[in-house]
Structures are given as structure tokens and as C-alpha cells.
Write a structure and sequence with these properties.
Layout (H helix, E strand, L loop, with lengths): L1 H23 L6 E5 L12 E5 L17 E7 L2 E7 L10 H14 L3 E10 L9 E9 L27 H14 L3 E8 L8 H10 L3 E3 L3 H9 L3 E11 L10 H25 L1
Parallel strand pairs: 1-4, 1-5, 5-9, 6-7, 7-8
Antiparallel strand pairs: 2-3, 3-4, 5-8, 6-9
Bound molecules: hypoxanthine (HPA).
The site of hypoxanthine has 13 residues, from β5, β8 and β9.
Length: about 280
């Protein structure tokens, strides 16, 4: 299945790029942003060119609640940005090829820096719902890897180094931006599961022992592919809830959406300031 997909993506990519180029003309995005749960409307604040995923070769239709499913091209503080309003999740049944295909398209469009955002559960006691966490590293517990299959040598090497997936320099930039705005932040390790079920308390305990500070169902595939392609990555988690077993409350998606909604004004300010400083 993987090789079949790759074969297909290989063909679609060129026509996807051509199609996007026709829509955006000489707009050359150099920074990409993947907007996570509850944060999608950041993209609504700017004059932009929008392209629904459904119109682009190789993009699957995105159907998760709260996500629009389109590429948004906008200039923010003089920076040319491409945003994903809605992302593909592995738990929806998409292959990791489909999940990470937009990152490869961004690379072909000239993107050098990618900001990946998500909602995540807080694993350690010092990390609180409502806080933002800059991702310093990850644990891939998805049990698979987006680079499995035939390697595309035009994008990256077969066995790419992953010793600094999340750019230290970009974390410094993000820290500076947060401090300037007086926004509280954390730094930590993000563990990715497939979902869609939330974790059990025993699983969260295991992840804590292994060094994870936050848990979510996204980001890692896109970060691996971006790093493989030579795109610098900044990962920001919006901690929306205590992970399972940290307190006695059962988890639900509404809580995730509600917290992300409360944090989103700070998140937008921070993103804008980070774009200023990049
Ligand atoms: N677990 C996994 N994914 C999540 C969580 C969580 O607790 N919160 C938001 N996304």
C-alpha cells in the first residue's frame, strides 16, 4: 500500500505544485504553519488566497470537526506564510504519506521554516492545562514512520539524522517572543500516539517515566518529514487538559476544544510575534 501511494504522490506532486503556483502567482512562502485543534481561525485574520485541499492533487479531503481543510497564503508582518487550516490525522485512517504530503508540497514551494501547533495533554504535574509548551524533542509511539517506502532523493536522504528535529534556534526565538509578551510557557518532550482513543493512566505513567511531558495524536509525522527535507521546525503544544490519570477527570474532546479556545488569543499574539522575530 505504501509503495502504491508513493508512486501516486510522486506523480501528483508536480501537478499539485503547478496548480498552486497558478493560484498564488509569484507569492513565495518561506514559512509554513500547521494550525492544530481550535487554532485554525488564526488564518482568518489576514488577507489571503485560500485553496481547499479537495482541489489539490494528492491532498485528501479533511473532515475532522473544527477543521476547515484548506491552504491559506497570507503576508504577515511582511513575511510570506503558507498555513494549513486543518491537518490530516493518522487516526482518521489516512496513511502517513497523506498526513505528511502537505509538508513535502511546502518544501517544493520554498518553505524553510515550519511552525507546527497542536493540542496536547499535560503529563507532568508542573505542566498545566492552558499553558503553551515549546517542543524540545519527541517520542514516536505511533509504531510507524512517515518515511517508510521508496525514498525520494530530491527531498532528503534515506536515513536522515533526527538529533535536532526541533530547532534550538527557533525555540530561543519563541522564548524571546513569549517573554516579550509576558506569556507563560513551558518546554518539553511530546509523545505521539496514534489515537483516536485517549491513553490509559498506565500508558501515561509509562510515558512520564520515559521522559514525556505532553501527549498528542499528531505533529511527529510532519516534524520527521520536515526535518528530513531540511525544513527547520518549531513545535508548539497548547496543553488543553491533564493527561489520563493525572487527576480523576475523564477526558473528552470538548474540553480540548474549550481550552484551546481560551488560549487562542495568547496563541495568536505569540505566533504573530514569533513571525516578527524569525
Ligand atoms: N491525549 C492525546 N491527545 C490529546 C490529548 C490527550 O490527553 N489532549 C489533546 N490531544
Amino acid at each position: 500500500m505504501h509503495s502504491l501511494h508513493l508512486y501516486q504522490w510522486g506523480y501528483n506532486m508536480e501537478s499539485a505544485i503547478k496548480f498552486i503556483r497558478e493560484k498564488i502567482g509569484d507569492f513565495m512562502p518561506d514559512t509554513g504553519i500547521i494550525l492544530g485543534s481550535g487554532l485554525g481561525d488564526f488564518a482568518d485574520n489576514f488577507d489571503s488566497i485560500k485553496i481547499p485541499y479537495s482541489e489539490i492533487d494528492g491532498f485528501e479531503k479533511s473532515n475532522v470537526q473544527g477543521h476547515k481543510g484548506q491552504l491559506v497564503f497570507a503576508e504577515i508582518n511582511g513575511k510570506k506564510i503558507i498555513m494549513m487550516q486543518g491537518r490530516y490525522h493518522y487516526y482518521e485512517g489516512y496513511s502517513l504519506d497523506a498526513v505528511t504530503y502537505p509538508v513535502k508540497v511546502m518544501k517544493k514551494l520554498g518553505v524553510k521554516t515550519l511552525i507546527i501547533t497542536n493540542a496536547a495533554g499535560a503529563i507532568s504535574g508542573d505542566y498545566l492545562p492552558g499553558e503553551l509548551m515549546f517542543i524540545t524533542d519527541h517520542l514516536n509511539f505511533m509504531g510507524t514512520n512517515p518515511l517508510i517506502g521508496k525514498n525520494d532523493d530530491t527531498l532528503g536522504t534515506r536515513f536522515p539524522d533526527m538529533s535536532e528535529v526541533y530547532s534550538k534556534e527557533l525555540i530561543k526565538t519563541a522564548v524571546n517572543a513569549a517573554e516579550k509578551l509576558n506569556i507563560n510557557y513551558q518546554k518539553g518532550v511530546y509523545v505521539a500516539t496514534t489515537g483516536p482513543s485517549y491513553e490509559t493512566p498506565a500508558e501515561i505513567n509509562m510515558y512520564r517515566i520515559l521522559g514525556a511531558n505532553a501527549v498528542g495524536m499528531s505533529t511527529v509525522p510532519e516534524a520527521i518529514v520536515a526535518n528530513y527535507c531540511g525544513i527547520k521546525v518549531l513545535g508548539i503544544s497548547c496543553l488543553t487538559n491533564y493527561a489520563a490519570g493525572v487527576n480523576d477527570t475523564p477526558l473528552n474532546h470538548q474540553e480540548v476544544i474549550d481550552t484551546a479556545d481560551k488560549v487562542k488569543d495568547n496563541f495568536k499574539k505569540l505566533l504573530t510575534e514569533i513571525l516578527n522575530q524569525i
